[in-house]
Amino acid sequence: MFVRHTRILLVLILCGLLFSCKGNKSESEDTHLPARAVSDNATLFPIRFRPKWQTQAQFAGIYMALNKGFYAQHGLDVQLQSVLLTEPAVDTLLQGHSDIVHIDLLNALDLCRETTKIVNIAQINQKNSVYLVGKKSRGINSLEDFKGKRLGLWRSGSNMATRLFLAKKNIPMEIINIDWSINLFTQNAVDVINAMDYNEYHQILQAGIAQDDLFIAEQQELGLTVPDEGFYTTPQFYKAHAKECKAFVKATLDGWLYAFSHVEETLDLVLKMMQDDNIRANRAHQLWMLNHMKEAIMPNTSEMGILKQRDYEDAMDLMIEYQDFPRRISYEEFYPNAE
To answer: How many Å apart are CA 119 and CA 111, to the nearest integer?
Structure first.
């Protein structure tokens, strides 16, 4: 009898331990996407952030803000979520699995046709970084030569600017969807390719194509000046946590300032993170990217992180004129930090 009672008691104790372990799971833990690190410090406010793309110097300011403890200094436990290439960052935001994400201004507006689903809390890039690149050796010497040619355009992400640019300039092209690769361009399967000045354009040069053989249409210089990348959240999250959103922006901008003034240290961290994520790492390319991100993010320090009203109104005008956007959203509604 004593042995039987002892066995029953041991079973009850084991069940209790299992229940206790299951119940102690952190409520702030992201059950959809893994985070790089989750702090045990309950005094820090958790924010789940997801970038638009995989690890590279395009996001160096965020990495340095994490590495140097700038988020913690502002009372935040920022969890850098992994990227799912098959699921846009904004989808995880709208599903409640991310708190702040990184997407382009025009794409953000396109999501707000019926209701304002997301709001801008910081405009990180202050210019349009998109190039359209063609080869002179294939008869591309002007914008006029684009007409009727095959354009390699990303099937998702930063493609809205190019679609608006072509509509505004009245340039008909055959769109070939591509998945973030320059291969079709280097192999002459497309005549023109969509490229970011800080990324794909340099990849083209590194592939051995002579700069003298390239015709480059810089959208910024040709009148499409809508800036691209910014930070977005839902109106509900911002209303409930405006203080924390502003702290996130401030700490990230501090991270960018640190990155730009400590280039080698920043590149060391970026390359290590890329290697940890099994991404091919090229120091020369990441340096090019970091330098061009500086040009985009801080044309001057007074404009860092600000969505300027003239840029917003320009974007709104383009969406209404060329994308059948059904309403005009006020600057203050879309950019609550303006208040």
So the answer is: 10
